[in-house]
Write a structure and sequence with these properties.
Blueprint lengths: L20 H10 L14 E2 L11 H7 L10 H14 L3 E5 L2 H12 L5 E4 L4 H9 L3 E4 L20 H11 L7 E4 L12 H13 L4 E4 L3 H11 L8 H10 L3 E5 L10 E5 L2 H14 L10 H13 L3 H20 L12 E5 H4 L9 H13 L1 E2 L1 E3 L1 H4 L1 E2 L6 E2 L5 E5 L7 H16 L7 E5 L10 E4 L1
Parallel strand pairs: 1-10, 3-4, 5-6, 6-7
Antiparallel strand pairs: 2-8, 7-8, 9-14, 11-14, 12-13, 15-16
Helix pairs in contact: 1-14, 2-11, 3-11, 4-5, 8-9, 12-16, 14-16
């Protein structure tokens, strides 16, 4: 069949409140034009993030009823640990309440002032946690990954030569670890090839530097390898995943993505001494090492979700449905990051709105108009999120790309919802020349996009 159907039935529904354009104009103004500050009840289609927004399965809800809420050594913890070890293969599993907690503990245990941490592309919380330690987050994605319109099967790859150059220039002692984000969220949800993981691992190990993988969307990345990389078409996704992580020394994971859960995460390592240090930090700020800030029922939901996300019928539906959105808007002339990513479609706001300079935030303008026009909440991934201050002049330096991410929650929306999103984007695209820029009137020193307040120019 040509149509790829959702490989699930809907058992429970949640009402969506329909709003008018006039209502949304007021809501947007009251939220200071920051979509993070809009109440979820006022959003028709919420594509702000795919993190923690998945619909859980009947098996996950059933498992939650069996959650053991013992403070230490609960049954749920042992199920969780066994599942994570079985999929990823690492010796030490440290539970955390979400991915950024795992990042904080990892970087607090490894990074010092003046260190540098290379990645294909750091996402916002990763970069912020590194910089909070006084280290520098360096992006080393391949050149194709910086060009939205260029088609490449693995645009998320790290540049091996750039990594070698960085190690030579900065010295191994200033690089506590190398990171690979799979899929590359900031770079358009683009996958990393097995060949690249293997090569980056070889460079890192030759220099004596640990390699960690940001595993948030590990299953989607593995499925792209199955689809696009020679030699993997007949391999089960579970085997591809195990090989991916065999080249790494540890990982961070937000189970709110490919864990198909609403909260939770973990930190893994093969280094026993480092694991003990990390557990000490965990106890200080998160909780005992057998729950890490999660309830037993959350541990159960993640253990089931990590198994369900490896179902290849689900992964086929997931990738095809995201591609459907990207193909329909790009065929109508909307510039997007090509090819479509696994968890989201990224509109190239710089190309779509050339009349708005980067320092007037074209991505924010487009995101606001999508909400005003159709009640769709997306997120700017451009100069608002990744702009930098020039250390000498204090002037704002624009981000490399000006994108708007439409992140698709897992197992939440149907085909008609996606068709509505397509229609809304095309309607805004038709009158794109009328859109204006914004300026920031208040911002925080870290992760400003979460709380910044704007006004239209």
């Amino acid at each position: 069949m040509k149509t790829i159907i959702e490989p699930f039935k809907i058992k429970t529904v949640e009402k969506i409140r329909l709003t008018t354009r006039e209502e949304r104009r007021r809501i947007l103004r009251d939220a200071a034009y920051n979509l993070f500050l809009i109440p979820a009840a006022d959003v028709l289609i919420d594509l702000l993030t795919d993190s923690g927004t998945a619909a859980m399965s009947s098996r996950q809800w059933a498992a939650m009823m069996d959650g053991d809420e013992a403070y230490a050594g609960s049954r749920s913890w042992f199920r969780f640990e066994e599942t994570v070890r079985g999929i990823f293969g690492f010796k030490h599993v440290i539970p955390t309440h979400q991915g950024r907690a795992a990042e904080r503990i990892l970087f607090a245990s490894t990074c010092r002032q003046g260190d540098v941490v290379p990645n294909n592309t750091h996402f916002d919380t990763t970069r912020a946690n590194i910089e909070y330690r006084g280290a520098a987050a360096i992006d080393l994605v391949i050149p194709e990954g910086r060009e939205p319109s260029v088609v490449h099967p693995f645009k998320g790859n790290m540049n091996p030569q750039a990594l070698k150059d960085l190690i030579r220039e900065r010295g191994r002692e200033r690089i506590p670890l190398v990171l690979l984000t799979v899929t590359n969220n900031s770079g358009g949800g683009q996958p990393v090839s097995m060949q690249n993981i293997r090569e980056i691992s070889g460079i890192s190990r030759a220099a004596g530097i640990p390699l960690y993988i940001d595993a948030c969307r590990f299953a989607e990345n593995a499925y792209f390898i199955k689809l696009r990389e020679p030699g993997y078409q007949s391999k089960p996704v579970r085997e591809i995943v195990r090989e991916m992580f065999s080249y790494a020394d540890g990982c961070t994971m937000s189970a709110k993505k490919d864990g198909l859960a609403n909260i939770g995460g973990f930190l893994c390592t093969n280094d026993g001494k480092l694991a003990e240090q990390e557990k000490e930090l965990l106890i200080l700020t998160e909780g005992f090492p057998t729950y890490g800030g999660m309830a037993g029922r959350d541990l159960e939901a993640i253990a089931v979700g990590l198994g369900e996300v490896l179902d290849e019928d689900y992964l086929q539906y997931r990738i095809v449905s995201t591609q459907y959105l990207g193909d329909h808007i790009s065929k109508a002339g909307v510039p997007i990051v090509q090819p479509p990513g696994g968890h989201a479609i990224y509109i190239d706001a710089k190309a779509m709105l050339p009349q708005i300079p980067p320092l007037q935030f074209p991505g924010q303008s487009l995101a606001c108009e999508l909400y005003h026009s159709a009640g769709i909440r997306a997120v700017e991934i451009g100069t608002v999120m990744f702009g930098r201050k020039n250390p000498d002049t204090g002037e704002e330096v624009p981000a490399a790309m000006e994108l708007v991410r439409l992140a698709i929650p897992r197992r939440v929306y149907t085909q008609s919802h996606v068709d509505y999103v397509v229609e809304a984007i095309l309607e805004v695209h038709e009158r794109r020349s009328s859109l204006k820029g914004y300026r920031i009137v208040h911002e925080a020193p870290f992760l400003r996009h979460f709380s910044a307040r704007f006004e239209p120019l």
